[in-house]
Every structure is written in structure tokens, then in C-alpha cells.
Design brief:
This protein has one domain (3-140): Nuclear Transport Factor 2, Chain: A (Roll). The protein has a 6-stranded mixed beta sheet. The chain contains 3 helices and 6 strands, in the order H-H-E-E-H-E-E-E-E. By secondary structure, the chain is an alpha+beta fold.
Length: 142
């Protein structure tokens, strides 16, 4: 398995384990400071770089998650993944596209799941560095 997929699955595992605001703050290490991410639910609001003056993108993203997601306990289960380039271990930029099951698992949330199409762009300075999300999005497949 590539370094990118290893990092991706680690971040998915940590995201799926989140229950408290502090848990979501711990996700900051998976995002580049210039990252942007878009909400899964319409209207797919942007969070990250340039949204809140004086705040790095990674901090803006995790602040949004910590503020809004603990009551919902969202879960993300990838079912198909395409890595570009195919084996990114020697690359500095790469992306993952795929399908996932997404749902809110809190008792107060609707018990419905849906399929999303996701896209994540990753970057790193050196091939020995961890991959960091620079752009992330997911949209419901209708």
C-alpha cells in the first residue's frame, strides 16, 4: 500500500473515532496550513484558507468540525478509491477520488446513510514527509 493510502486510512480511522471537540482538533495534523475543504451537505460551504482572517486553513477546518460535528458523529466509509498517480510514493502532489458511505451516527441524527463521491488533493515538500490534504470535497451521489 502506498504512503498516501496509508495516511488516508489513518485519517479516516481517526475521523471515524471522533466524538468530542478535542478529537476533531487532533485532525489538524492531516491538513496543510493552506487547506480548503467543503461540507458534504448542501450548500457545500467552504472552510479553510481565506475563510477566517488571520487563521490558517487547517485550523479553520478543524474549528468548524469541532464546533459542529460532535453532536452528529459523522462516519465516512470508503468503498472505492483511485489514487493518482497510481503509486504516489515518489510524488510530491497526488489525489484520491472515490466513493464512500457517509452517515451521522449520533442518536439525535437521522439514521440514514448515503453514498458520496469524494476528492482529496494532497501535497508534501519531500517524499519523506507525511501527505497533507490541500483540498477536500465530497458530494452526495443522487
Amino acid at each position: 500500500m502506498s504512503q498516501l493510502l496509508t495516511q488516508f486510512f489513518a485519517s479516516v480511522h481517526e475521523f471515524n473515532a471522533c466524538k468530542s471537540p478535542g478529537d476533531y482538533q487532533n485532525l489538524k495534523r492531516y491538513y496543510n496550513k493552506d487547506a480548503t475543504a467543503y461540507e458534504v451537505d448542501p450548500p457545500n460551504t467552504k472552510h479553510g484558507k481565506g475563510v477566517t482572517a488571520g487563521k490558517d486553513g487547517n485550523q479553520d477546518i478543524v474549528d468548524y468540525l469541532a464546533l459542529t460535528q460532535p453532536a452528529l458523529w459523522p462516519r465516512f466509509w470508503p468503498t472505492q478509491i483511485k489514487e493518482t498517480p497510481t503509486n504516489s510514493d515518489t510524488a510530491l502532489n497526488a489525489s484520491l477520488d472515490g466513493l464512500a458511505i457517509y452517515f451521522d451516527s449520533a442518536e439525535t441524527a437521522p439514521a440514514t446513510s448515503f453514498v458520496i463521491k469524494f476528492h482529496f488533493d494532497y501535497t508534501r515538500t519531500l517524499t519523506t514527509d507525511d501527505w497533507l490534504v490541500i483540498t477536500g470535497s465530497g458530494n452526495q451521489v443522487l
